[in-house]
């Protein structure tokens, strides 16, 4: 059942984003920022973790999950470092995901030989 919940929740998030892209004049970058901020705000109010417990990867993989990770890191750093944790927590929590995305994108570019768009 975990796979089914992850599939339909992730699909619903993607479908809602697709509707936003087609029915509004929002640019994709703004929609991505909206998703990250939504995940962070829901995490701040402790609503995103129960959602992730229910949906698993369906809630963790979209950009709202990244906002949740950032907010979780900020909360943890504030508890351990105080005020300065506001500035360092998100970087510490999101570093592994960002670094792996860059490394794997670079490896994919070596294999696929990308070309500039005309």
Please report which band the strand proportion falls in: under 5%, 5-15%, 15-25%, 25-35%, 35-45% or over 45%.
under 5%
Count of helix runs: 6
Rg (C-alpha, Å): 17 Å
Percent of residues in helical segments?
A: over 70%
Could you give the order of the helices and strands? HHHHHH
Number of domains: 1
> Gap between N and C termini, in Å?
46 Å
Shape assignment: globular
Classification by helices and strands: mainly alpha
Largest sheet: none
Count of DSSP E strands? 0
Mean pLDDT over the residues? 89
Unreliable stretches:
none
Q: Your description of this structure?
A:
The longest helix is centred in the C-terminal third of the chain and has 28 residues, at 85-112. The radius of gyration is 17 Å and the shape is globular. With 118 residues, it is mainly alpha-helical. The N and C termini lie far apart (46 Å). It has six helices and no strands. The model has no long low-confidence stretch (mean pLDDT 89). The relative contact order is 0.10. The protein has one domain. It has helices spanning 2-23, 28-44, 48-55, 57-60, 63-81, 85-112. 83% of the residues lie in helices and 0% in strands.
Keywords, separated by commas or semicolons:
118 residues; 6 helices; single chain
Short description:
With 118 residues, the protein is mainly α.
Task: Give the helix/strand layout.
Layout: H1 2-23, H2 28-44, H3 48-55, H4 57-60, H5 63-81, H6 85-112
Helix pairs in contact: 2-5, 5-6
């Amino acid at each position: 059942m975990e796979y089914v919940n992850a599939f339909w929740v992730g699909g619903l998030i993607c479908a809602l984003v697709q509707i936003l892209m087609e029915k509004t004049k929002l640019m994709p970058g703004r929609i991505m920022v909206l998703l990250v901020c939504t995940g962070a705000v829901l995490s701040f109010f402790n609503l995103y973790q129960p959602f992730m417990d229910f949906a698993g990867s369906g809630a963790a993989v979209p950009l709202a999950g990244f906002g949740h990770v950032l907010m979780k890191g900020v909360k943890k750093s504030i508890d351990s470092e105080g005020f300065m944790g506001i500035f360092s927590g998100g970087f510490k929590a999101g570093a592994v995901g960002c670094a792996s995305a860059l490394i794997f994108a670079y490896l994919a570019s070596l294999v696929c030989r990308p070309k500039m768009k005309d």
